[in-house]
């Protein structure tokens, strides 16, 4: 299956906000934020069905999220992962001496990962801190 | 509470007419009492060879609120080399022209100030102002809500509805726990919301179609209708421009026919603030000159007016004012970073750093003008010393200003060391003035005068039994000749003792107790006015971005120790 | 039977809506309905009384299970780790009230901590730019009453500040804007066709990360000077169209967000956006406002500024305040491994910091004060639940335009649960005892 490169940005969504207030350990939060929104043209390049799990990898890490069709497109070449622990596995921590990590604009590779699960939010961070993923 | 007797000091108290005689001051239960009322266990403070005055009263400074804090936030460089560490009772502090709130309280108290008025409170932000006041230790404070560009005020005064204006003011003072009617660049700051201004008292305000003159006279009338402790307090139009003294005279003349009406001993109907900034002649920076004489002659002749000086201290400082258009103009002149906040229905604020360099002719002339006003004022009970902190300089420079006022030699040394001293001398009067302020006059200009002007004559600014025990002892011997004017500045920088409401708060220039500061505000009762209440309700529903209930919400945690000055205007 | 509490302030985002109405049972104990809130605010209120809420402090055991403790034990541990650390980080503050922040600052000063708030990962770069160039801004009511040109640059209020457009910026009928939406023109700059962009009169679908160039091009366009054919993916005709639209208004405002604060040029983007605003003031009246995220991040900045002199990333370790983002900021402190104790309150760095920084928090003694279970609590040694500010306790908060609004208490917290302020006071008293201060 294809590996495509994208420019990754992260940010807020209403679903992320609602799910956050409901509890980040819950499934609703994973369904709101453990996703990557892709433009249709990028789905074609990737060559998979919508709502497939994909592995997104950057220079800084790797995470499995569910690929969804974007509701705020078209934006070919851009992938959007709502802010949260999934996005933060792979965003750039580099602050360039400003104190601010580079949450927007990280080059990533996306490949299909149908058999790999999307972890729950709290679990994901705990496992990462223990070095298990 | 510990009782104190301050013995053998040279007392300067304009309230009792004591001009340096040796006298004892007795303190009991937070008040000054006759000597014979304290017990044998009273702690004795030896003030032999020292100067004793009431705690000083700051009539106008920008020390608490959104624009002050915007200045702090956007000027990290103001903190360089000015940090004071956590030490004893003192929280850490920082900031030169815009000190942090803890440092503000400590610095005032160490100089012998015990009461300070925050000069401009945007009513929408009252909670912010009061949070900062609460976090400023030791000194009593009050805050003046700004009203000169307020939509309610402009609409009522356009129709000459004084009673409605008064009802609105009373409501606003209660909602914001404010102290007085403050007017800044009347009409011009509303015009500034469209990028415009009112530079003369007759320029009409866009849409509201009222002139600054009408706003000013209307607010004087409303203030006297209410009988508030303080008068209308005004920062006139056209601040800072060459030739602005004419606008100032126009503004002053508006007060001519009015008489003060109140139960607090206040005699003025207009307090014109930071008069130095409003005393400029010429018509460009080249022929910029002092018109302090014209201004002070008028003030001297008209007893229903008080002023404060707004002395330039020749420092790097931060200007901040509700005169939004002026700040935009200033950044156009000096190209330093500009901050601005327009406030819905009420006012605006602007902030721009400024360097008053002694090498610049205009700055030196400004310095001279401020001192000329103080030295040529015939009634020291009507002319008070300020720096419009931080606009003309930090309040921590008061001892330096006192030095310049009390020592002609110190002035001469300063003048002769100006880069353009010839030009400065020919554009001002300062070189010809050899008057030296006496300690009694100093007490009038920094204690009794401002207290009376604020309507607090019964409470502070003097050492008469019954008044609050706000007392300061300075290491300054009036009998010894001044060999070096620097000693004046040193002596007034750090008090030997400061008492606030009977508690010893400063000793040998160090904070020894945080006291129990109060927030002064005015509770004015008026007749029920359903029309005004309905107008208020309507504007909150339609135009404000906050609900009326939340605007009026100023709970105990904001004002933990209020002192309400009651006014009954229901007659 | 029920009663409705009005003028309730929503404690979610920087929009700080204060017109919510919360219906509670007659005995005042249970929230049954929330009116006027957006979906997120409603969820915050309605979920606050969920049955699975953690109600007691708990220590994480080495095997990953949790052991309940008392608030006293929690305060003992917190005071101890803060006093023992050489460089503790006290982070967050944005989802609690100013009163709690103030007590927290007393602790930070007493132990010599680094104090930082969520601006570190949000509008910190805005603050840096403001410190360079200034800030022409206004209150949201001015936008409602006067603004006829609205620009959303690198922000998506439809998702992040859902009621912003209806309360302040697009739809309201204000004093001089009686035609509501029809009085206004909207320009949106965003690399995606966001739900906000769908409402725009002009959408500049910018090449992601090239905001600095486009801002600079606008400044050129204002002066009617030469432009290349395309800047940042936008054709010059569209740039001039936007520039003319801005200049022709009588009161304009630029709202901006993470699209410009977090992308590669960071503070330089904001600097340029403020310069655009300043330039526009030569032609008409223009302001600029950051879309603050948490409901009281602005408040944390204000309280830090009036107490210590700086709005975020404050280092108190030497006994006086120091400030140098990039050096004293949380992410950098963590990535350099300098932090030896972590105290997190009113925020969730576990979810919102890059994972490499979170790993550092997981390594050291740590406390997480939060009503919710979060990724931060999940990697902390101690989790202390507290009452929700704005729901179960009141307290002052500052809106994105710096306007202070006092949040309300609508219901009681769960039995025995403390507020942030109460727990912090317990910690402070213990710290003072340990440090031997007056």
Number of strands of chain B: 24
Helical run tally of chain C:
17
- Extract low-pLDDT stretches of chain C: none
Q: What's the number of domains of chain C?
A: 3
Distance from N terminus to C terminus of chain C (CA atoms, Å) equals 51 Å
Just name the CATH architecture of the largest domain in chain C.
3-Layer(aba) Sandwich
- What is the count of DSSP helices of chain B, taking H or I runs of 4+ residues? 18
Number of domains of chain B: 2
Question: Which range does the strand content of chain B fall in?
Answer: 15-25%
Fold-level CATH name of the largest domain in chain C: Rossmann fold
- Which CATH class of the largest domain in chain B is shown? Alpha Beta
Estimated share of beta-strand residues of chain C: 15-25%
Average of per-residue pLDDT values of chain B: 97
The CATH topology of the largest domain in chain B turns out to be TIM Barrel
Topology:
The complex is a heterotrimer of chains A (133), B (571) and C (438).
Chain A: E1 3-11, H1 14-22, H2 27-33, E2 35-38, H3 40-46, E3 52-58, E4 61-69, E5 78-82, H4 87-90, E6 104-112, H5 121-129
Parallel strand pairs in A: 1-5, 2-4
Antiparallel strand pairs in A: 1-6, 2-5, 3-4, 3-6
Helix pairs in contact in A: 1-2
Chain B: E1 4-13, E2 18-28, E3 31-33, E4 43-46, E5 51-54, E6 56-61, H1 66-74, H2 101-110, E7 113-121, H3 126-134, E8 140-145, H4 151-158, H5 162-176, E9 182-184, H6 188-192, H7 212-226, E10 232-235, H8 245-253, E11 270-272, E12 280-281, E13 289-290, H9 292-301, E14 305-308, E15 316-321, H10 324-334, E16 338-343, E17 347-355, H11 361-376, E18 383-384, H12 398-406, H13 408-416, H14 421-427, H15 439-453, E19 471-474, H16 486-493, E20 497-500, E21 503-507, E22 510-511, E23 519-525, H17 530-542, H18 548-551, E24 562-568
Parallel strand pairs in B: 1-4, 1-5, 6-7, 7-8, 9-10, 10-11, 11-14, 14-18, 23-24
Antiparallel strand pairs in B: 1-2, 2-3, 5-19, 12-13, 15-17, 16-17, 19-20, 20-21, 21-22
Chain C: E1 2-8, E2 20-25, E3 31-35, H1 39-47, E4 58-60, E5 66-68, H2 71-84, E6 88-92, H3 98-111, E7 114-117, H4 124-133, E8 134-138, H5 140-146, E9 149-153, H6 157-160, H7 164-169, E10 185-189, E11 202-204, H8 211-222, E12 230-231, E13 234-235, H9 236-247, E14 252-256, H10 258-261, H11 267-280, E15 286-290, H12 297-308, E16 314-315, E17 322-323, H13 330-335, E18 341-345, H14 349-352, H15 355-363, E19 366-369, H16 375-379, E20 382-384, E21 395-398, E22 404-407, H17 420-435
Parallel strand pairs in C: 6-7, 6-18, 9-10, 9-14, 10-11, 14-15, 18-19, 19-20
Antiparallel strand pairs in C: 1-2, 2-3, 4-5, 4-20, 7-16, 12-13, 16-17, 21-22
Helix pairs in contact in C: 2-17, 3-12, 3-17, 4-11, 8-9, 8-11
